[in-house]
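Hi support team,

I've been running sequence recovery on a batch of backbones for a student project. Most finish fine, but this one hangs at about 90% for roughly twenty minutes before it completes. I'm not sure whether the input is malformed or the queue is just slow. I've pasted the C-alpha cells below so you can try to reproduce it. Let me know if you need the job ID as well.

Thanks,
M.K.
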C-alpha cells in the first residue's frame, strides 16, 4: 500500500515527526503535491482547511486528515475525509495504516469516521518516537500546557499536563546538525510541571548540546513570568540567540485575567526590561480585537505596545476564534482608528510586525 503526505507549508514539522513515527512501523510517507493512490495524509489548521477540503472530498484515494482543525472539529472533517485522526498521531497513524493494510475498517481508538469514533485513552510518550528521521524538523522537547488561555488550542489537543522528551534523546537529534532549534509551548518550562521552572534541568540540557543552539525563540517561545536574570544568564552562557520571544497578549490586566493567562502586564514589562538590560532583544506578542475588549482595554494594549517598542520588537495579530478553545464561536471586535494608525506607524519604523488587518496571514507565513 502506497502512503503519501500532502505537502502543505504550515505542516512541515508535522511531516518530519509523523514520517519518523511511521518508519518505526515500516511505513514510508512520500511527499506529494496532489492526492495520490493508495492513501494520502493531510494535516490541517482551521484557516488552511478551506483551501484543501474540496480537494480531499474529491480525491480518488483513501484520505486521512489530522492536525489541530481535525482534532477540534472531527465531526465536520468526517464529511469530506475517509478517516480523521483526533489528537496525537505518532501511534494512531501507523496503527490505522496497519489496520487498512489488513483489510480493516479503521475502527481503532483515536480515529473518527462518518459513523464511528472512540477516543484514545492515553497520551504519547515523546521518547517512544524519534524527533525526526532524514527529513529534518525542529526537536519537540515538550507537549501540553497547564494554562487554559482562552484563544489557545494547545491544551485542548495535548492536555494540561506537560510531557518532556529526555535530555539524552533531545541531544541525540539536536546534535545532528549545525544548528539546534526546538518546539515547545514554553521553552523555559522544560523539565517542569509548567508552572514552577526547573532551570537546573534546562542548563543540564543545554550543556549536552554541541552545536549552535537557539532556545526561547520561535517556535519555542517562553512565558514572561519565566524570564528572570537566571534564565537570561543561561541563554547568554549556552545559546546563540540574542532574542527572547514571549507573549504579553494584552496591556489590560482585566483582559489577561479573562483570558486565564496567569500573568499581568507588569510581568511582561519586567521581562522585557530584563532582556533589554542584558543586551537581549525581547520579541513580544500581542493580540488585538479580543471579543470582550473595551475601548479602554484596547487603548491600554496600544499604550503597552508603544512603550515596549522602545526596547524591543512587537508582533501583533488580530484575534481569531479557533475551534476547540474557550473563545470558539466568538467574533473579533473592530480596531480603533488610533490603534490602526499607531500600529501602522510602528510597522513603518521597523518596530512592529504581524497581521492585525489580515489575521489569516500568520497561518501561511513562518517567522524567522
Amino acid at each position: 500500500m502506497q502512503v503519501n503526505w500532502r505537502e502543505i507549508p504550515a505542516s512541515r514539522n508535522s511531516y518530519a515527526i509523523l514520517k519518523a513515527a511511521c518508519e518505526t512501523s515500516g511505513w514510508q510517507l512520500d511527499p506529494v503535491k496532489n492526492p495520490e493512490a493508495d492513501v494520502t495524509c493531510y494535516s490541517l489548521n482551521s484557516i488552511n482547511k478551506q483551501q484543501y477540503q474540496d480537494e480531499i472530498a474529491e480525491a480518488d484515494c483513501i484520505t486521512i486528515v489530522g492536525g489541530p482543525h481535525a482534532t477540534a472539529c472531527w465531526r465536520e472533517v468526517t464529511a469530506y475525509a475517509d478517516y480523521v485522526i483526533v489528537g496525537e498521531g505518532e501511534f494512531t497513524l501507523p496503527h490505522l495504516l496497519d489496520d487498512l493494510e489488513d483489510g480493516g475498517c479503521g475502527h481503532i481508538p483515536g480515529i473518527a469516521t462518518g459513523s464511528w469514533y472512540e477516543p484514545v485513552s492515553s497520551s504519547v510518550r515523546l521518547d517512544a518516537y524519534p524527533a525526526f528521521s532524514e527529513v529534518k524538523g525542529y526537536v519537540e522537547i515538550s507537549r501540553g500546557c497547564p494554562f487554559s488561555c482562552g484563544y489557545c488550542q494547545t491544551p485542548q489537543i495535548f492536555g494540561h499536563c506537560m510531557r518532556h522528551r529526555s535530555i539524552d534523546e533531545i541531544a541525540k537529534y539536536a546534535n545532528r546538525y549545525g544548528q539546534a532549534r526546538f518546539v515547545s509551548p514554553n521553552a523555559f518550562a522544560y523539565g517542569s510541571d509548567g508552572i514552577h521552572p526547573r532551570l537546573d534541568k534546562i542548563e543540564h540540557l543545554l550543556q549536552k548540546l554541541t552545536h549552535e543552539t537557539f532556545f526561547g525563540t520561535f517556535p519555542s517561545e517562553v512565558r514572561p513570568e519565566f524570564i528572570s536574570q537566571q534564565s537570561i544568564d543561561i541563554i547568554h552562557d549556552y545559546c546563540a540567540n540574542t532574542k527572547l520571544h514571549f507573549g504579553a497578549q494584552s496591556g489590560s490586566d482585566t483582559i489577561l485575567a479573562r483570558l486565564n493567562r496567569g500573568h499581568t502586564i507588569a510581568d511582561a514589562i519586567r521581562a522585557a526590561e530584563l532582556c533589554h538590560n542584558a543586551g537581549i532583544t525581547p520579541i513580544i506578542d500581542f493580540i488585538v480585537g479580543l471579543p470582550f475588549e473595551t475601548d479602554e482595554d484596547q487603548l491600554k494594549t496600544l499604550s503597552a505596545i508603544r512603550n515596549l517598542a522602545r526596547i524591543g520588537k512587537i508582533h501583533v495579530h488580530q484575534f481569531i476564534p479557533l475551534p476547540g478553545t474557550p473563545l470558539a464561536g466568538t467574533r473579533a471586535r473592530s480596531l480603533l482608528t488610533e490603534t490602526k494608525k499607531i500600529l501602522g506607524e510602528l510597522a513603518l519604523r521597523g518596530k512592529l510586525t504581524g497581521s492585525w488587518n489580515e489575521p489569516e496571514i500568520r497561518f501561511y507565513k513562518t517567522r524567522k
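--
Follow-up from support: It reproduced on our side and the slowdown came from queue contention, not your input. Residues 295-308 form the longest helix (14 residues). No action needed from you.
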